[in-house]
Amino acid sequence: MKFTSTVIAFALAAAGTSDAFAPAVRSVPTFSSTTSLDASAGGRQPIMAGNWKMNPGTEQDAIDLSQALTKLLGDETCPIDDENPLCTEVVVFPPHPFIAKVGEEVADAGITIGAQSIYFEDKGAYTGSVSASMVLSLGCEYVLCGHSERRTLFDDDDQAINRKVLKVLTSGMKPILCIGESKAEYDLHIKNEVCAMQLSKDLANVTKEQMKDVVIAYEPVWAIGTGLVCAAEDANETHAFLRTILARMYDDDVAQETRIQYGGSVTPDSVDELMSMPEIDGCLVGGASLDAEKFGRIINFKTE
Ligand code: PGA
C-alpha cells in the first residue's frame, strides 16, 4: 500500500511537531481523566521473549538451551494451559531450522514458540524465504516484525514490515512489532517522531479487533547488543507516549490494552527496575536469552 503525506503528517502531528528534524519537546503524554496509566487497570499480561537471533550454532546446542530453560520457570510463569491471565507468558524465537525441535522441547513447560521473521508472500519463487503458513505449521504463535537488524541489515522497510504484520495476523499468529530510534535519531531528539512514524506505517490497515493480538516492542537501536540499557524511567515515558499514539490511531482501550515490551541489553541486573515501571509489560531479550540462567532470572523478574 502507499503511504501518503497524510499518514506522515498524522504521525508527526501526533508526535507533537510538524517538522521531523525540529528538536522535540520531551514527551509529556496527555491522557483524558478516564485514562489510567496503571498497568493493573489495563490488566496486561507480562510477556518475556528471547530472541536467539542467529544462535546457537547447532541443533543440539538449541536443544540443550531449551531443556535448561524449561527447568528455570518459576511460580509466576504460565504453566501449560494455564487460565491465569496475569501469569508471565514466555516466548522463545529460535532460528528457523530449530523451531520444530525447540518447540517439542519446551511445549510441556508452557513456553510459547515464535519465528524471527517471515516473508509476506504465501508461496512461490522466493529463494531462502519462509512463509507464515510454514512457521504456523511448526507451532509458532508469534512472529517478530520490524526488528532493527531486519530493518538495517536486510532492508526491511516500513511497507514490507506492514505487509508482514498483516500476513502474520491473517494467518492466525501474533506479531511482535519492533520499533525504536537509532543513535543518530536519539541525538537529534526525534525519538518520539521516529517511533510515531513507525507505528503509524507498520500498523496501517491493522484493525482495532486485530490489535488484541499485536505486541509492540520498543527497542532503542543504540541499546541493542551494546550493553547500554535505556533508563527505566525514560523507557517508561516512551511507552506512555506510544500509548498516546495508539489512542489517536485507535482509541483509549487499545492504548491501554496493548502490551508494550522494552528491548535492548536487558539483563538480570536491569530487568527488575524495568518491570517495575507501570508502562513496561515485558522484555524482548537478545544476548541474555542465550544463557539459560540469565534468561531464567529475567523471566522470574521481581517487582515490589
Ligand atoms: P539484546 O538484543 O538484548 O542483545 O540487546 C535485543 C534484541 O535485539 O531484541
SSE diagram, text form:
Elements: H1 5-15, H2 39-42, E1 47-51, H3 59-70, E2 89-93, H4 99-106, E3 112-115, H5 132-137, E4 142-145, H6 148-153, H7 158-170, E5 174-179, H8 183-187, H9 191-202, E6 215-218, H10 232-249, H11 252-257, E7 259-263, H12 268-276, E8 282-285, H13 292-299
Parallel strand pairs: 1-2, 1-8, 2-3, 3-4, 4-5, 5-6, 6-7, 7-8
Helix pairs in contact: 1-9, 3-4, 3-13, 9-10, 10-12
This protein binds 2-phosphoglycolic acid (PGA).
Residues 51, 219, 224-225, 263-266, 284-288 line the site of 2-phosphoglycolic acid.
What share of the residues lie within helices?
A: 25-40%
Order of helices and strands: HHEHEHEHEHHEHHEHHEHEH
Assigned CATH architecture:
Alpha-Beta Barrel
Q: Return Rg in Å.
A: 18 Å
> Hetero groups bound?
2-phosphoglycolic acid
CATH domain class name: Alpha Beta
Strand order of the largest sheet: 1-2-3-4-5-6-7-8
Number of E strands: 8
Sum up the overall morphology in one term.
Answer: globular
Main beta-sheet strand count, sense and barrel state: 8 strands, parallel, barrel
Q: Helical element count?
A: 13
Class computed from helices, strands and strand pairing? alpha/beta
